[in-house]
Every structure is written in structure tokens, then in C-alpha cells.
Fold:
Amino acid sequence: MDMMRPMPLPEMKEGPATNDASAAVAISVRDLRAGYGAAPVLKGVNLEIREKTVTAIIGPSGCGKSTLIRCLNRMHEAIPGATCDGEILLGGRNALEIDPVLLRREVGMVFQRPNPFPTMTIAQNVAAGLVLNGVRDRAAIAETVEKSLRRAALWDEVKDKLDAPGVGLSGGQQQRLCIARALAVEPRVLLLDEPCSALDPIATGRIEELLIQIKDQLTVVIVTHNMQQAARVSEYTVFMLMGEMVEYGLTRKMFTQPADKRTEDYITGRFG
Amino acid sequence: MTTAVLDRVRKVPGSRERAGDRLFRLVIAGFAGIILLAAVALAWQLARESAETWRTFGLTFLWTSDWDPVADVFGALPFLYGTAVSSFLALLIAVPLGVGAAVFLTELAPKRLAEVLMFAIELLAAVPSVILGLMGIFLLVPAMRAAGSPYGVGMLTAGLILAFMILPYITTITREVLLTVPRPLKEAMYALGATRWEVVRGVSLPYARPGIVGAVFLSLGRALGETMAVTMVIGNTPQIKASLLEPGYSMAAVIANELAEAASDAHLSALVAIGLTLMAVTIVVNGAARLMLYRLGRAK
Ligand SMILES: Nc1ncnc2c1ncn2[C@@H]1O[C@H](COP(=O)(O)OP(=O)(O)OP(=O)(O)O)[C@@H](O)[C@H]1O
Ligand SMILES: [Mg+2]
Structure:
């Protein structure tokens, strides 16, 4: 991570959303406080994530990006001693008050390190969520497996070896397999926590492309350390610092005319 | 100059250390060799002492069921059957219970409780088998009778005692493998909307399976050779009956019971032949278990 050296502002592309209020709100986070044991990490975060857009979360290491994203599907509370309160409105309900199992079927997640199930084949990995949902119809499963692998831009590479173990793929393929696995249950939101940090630039490029493609169908929230990546894939960016949301807005605007001095320092690499 | 210093540093303490090393290795190798030699000598001795039986009956010794020391007719099938059935019953009972207990201890129980329970389970593994046998006689046999078993002792009673005996092994080993399941894998399953149980079934148990299979074989090896507890509750009757409530006999039990009173050389030889068979079976089963656990260890 070359945060110490000022880097050129990434070139911006024209995004579909031009206005802050143009898209409907998918997730609304209100006064979210979270931490581990007694130590607070998120100190009252407010955020409205727009539907069918890609929102990037950036900020220095340890500022609480993973904590925030893991609150959104309540994986945070799987950690012993983790605390979380506030409000996360999703489709009119407070996600913190519904059954986390049901919530996670609507809010999928892809982790930093590819984690396909080692005892399952490629097809079984993708089908894992369907099987959880009680789908038993083989034809329907095969169809969804293909569709999900296509959406994850992996189909052409694996269509002849669907019965090979998922862990036999390359790192980038494994990560796309994990994306396919998350997409197979048709979530409304897909969370990705630094999904490319273990991948080479080509594999990273593939994933960025596919994220841009799938955002027509669902809301994507991606944590990234890579400013160029945020600029390439996201329409909105959240900048966090020490457990607080410093700035939130259109990526284009944030990267060209940041409203907050701290944001400017961070994205130009003067931070720290 | 530097090289000279280095040479001195390397050579002087190095060569002395190496000499010590060599001696140490030699002594250790010697001990290991003695153990191996003892095992081979034992097998050879067993083979020699049972030669008469193998000459007289050949392999039919293993699949005929007349055991009549007075008439010098020997067939080991009832003992083979008794050992196999009681051990199999023990696995049938102990594997689901032990795996279930391990899942409970790793995934559900609060940490403190799990620690206390594990301590108790490990203590259980240290109870001498004669004490388990006593417990069988004083508790299990009357209970079986009360539940309608005609004799109280019998194949099922032996299976239950054996199950109790191998339960700690299965629980401890399974728990240890379950603790090695990588957290990211479990999180991946949770993130798909899996319940705790679905994570156990879909991720943890499949991941732990080779270890569990190893534990099962290890326990089987233990159950096959168990003598005291089984002798005390199996009924010691060389017969093959369909009912599990009928008394039976096992290989280890018949050796323990009859060896001291063997009247004829033929009888003694037949008992040793059973011993040789038992040794072969347990070595194969234990070998398979070690191999599986070893492979698991290397795969990680
Ligand atoms: N399991 C945990 N137990 C205790 N503290 C934790 C735990 N996970 C994270 N923290 C603390 O919470 C704070 C925020 O962590 P978090 O992982 O959310 O940061 P992040 O922004 O994702 O950082 P990075 O960019 O390095 O991934 C850090 O100070 C970290 O030390
Ligand atoms: Mg993180």
C-alpha cells in the first residue's frame, strides 16, 4: 500500500448516477455503534446506501471498515464479545432486530481471502446456498449454478470441470467462485471486504468488471484499500477515519473536490 | 581471520555436539529396535505355540464353531463373532454419541462448561477397565434384567460397556479436529444464511471427517482387544445366537479365562492361535487408524 507517496487522482468515468438523491435507498444506517468488548470501534455512523449502485468504503487500516460491513449482515456479532447497536434499515425493517439467518440470505458476503469449501466441488460450492434454502430440484440447481458462474465471469473457465474441487482453482478463480456462491441465492445486497487484496492485477480487473456488470441487479458495497479501484468501480464512496464517517458522496466528486480536508489528505496520499 | 574464527566456532563445539548426537541417536535407535524386536519375537512365539492348531485344523479353525476342550475340538468362530459384534455395537452407540458430544463441546457449550466437561471426559478415559466391569456388574446387568433381558449379561451389555469405554476417545479426538476447522470456512457458510447446525453439518463435520474416521478405527482397536470389562459382562458362553441379549464370548475373554486351566497342549495351542489372530486384527486396525490420522496431519 503506497499511501505515503502522493498519487495522481484517478481518472473518472461518467457514472449513471449523477445526483446524490437520484437512486432509492437500499440500506440506511443510523447511529451505528459497534465494538469488541469494551473498546468502541464505530462511533455512531450514519449512512444511506443507494439501491443498485456500487458503494466503496475507504479509509486507513483499523478505521472500522470491516467492522461496518460486517455489521450490515451481522457477521460482526459472531465474534465473541462483539457489540453492536443503532439501526440498520433494510427494506423497511431494522436488520439488527430480525433473524440474522434470514438477513444473511438477502445480504451476501465475499471475504478478503477466497474461502471455497474444501470438501465441495465447484458446482457444490455455488449450490451451497440453494441447498440451505431447501432447493432439491437438480435441474433448477444446475441452471442456477450456470447462471451464477456466468454472472461471476467464471463459467467459461470452469464449465468443463464443474465436478472438480473448488480449492483446485487459482486464487482469482476461487474468489470469483465465492462471488458466484454469494450470487446464487439472489441476494439484494452483496458485501465485499477487500476482495482483491490477495489477487494479481489481472484477476483484480476481472472482478472489477463483473462488479460493474452485476450492479444493475443488486446493491454492492465494497471495502477497498485501493483508491483507483474505488474510482473504477464505485458511484458512491464512504471515507472513514477512526470509527467515524468523515465524508460520503459521489465518487467522482469526492475524488476531484473532496469536501473535507482529511479526505483530501487521504486520497492524495498525504495521510498519516 | 574471519574464516578462522568461524571455523573454530563451527568445529570445536560442533564436533563434540555431533559425537553426543550420534551416541544419543544410537541409544534411541537401540531402544526402538528392542521394541520392534520384541514385537516380532512375540508374533513368532505365538505362531510357534499355536502351530499345532493350525496344523490340525488349518484355517477352518477360524470358521467352525465347536469349542470342546474335552474332545480336543476347536473352532474359534464364536469368539471372533463375539469380539466383532460387541465391538461393532460399541461403535454403533459411541460414534454418534461421541461426535454429538464433541459438536456440543466445540460449537454450543460455553467455554467454561466445555473445559469442565472435557476434564471429566478425560478422567473417564483413565478409569481402569476392571472398574468399568464392576460398574457393569453392579449397575448395567441389573438394569438390563429390569429392562427384560433374560440374563442381564450378554452381547449387548458388553457392547454398552465397550461404548462407555471408547466414548472419551471419540469425543476427545473429534473435538480436537473440530477445533482446527478454519474460521473463514465457517464464516462463509454463516454468510450464506446457514444456521449453526447447518454450519456443523455442511462445513465442520465434512472437514473433520478424516479425523473422525481415524478416531473410530483407534477406538475399534481398543474395543477389539478389551479383555477385563468384556469378560465380566459378556456371559462367557461360546455360542452364536441371533439375539443380542444372549450371552456370548470374545477372543480376549476366552484367553483370559481358559489359559491358566488349559488341560491339554491342544487346548493351549488353540488359545494361542486365537491370540495370534487377535493380534493380527488389532495391528491392522490400529495401523489403519494411525495411517489415517497421519495423513490428516500431513494434509494440514
Ligand atoms: N476480533 C477483534 N477483536 C478485537 N478488536 C478487533 C477485532 N477486529 C477488529 N478489531 C479492532 O477494531 C478496529 C477496527 O477494525 P476493522 O477490522 O474494522 O478495521 P479495517 O478498517 O477493516 O482495517 P483494515 O483496513 O486493516 O482491514 C481495529 O482497531 C481493530 O484492532
Ligand atoms: Mg478490514
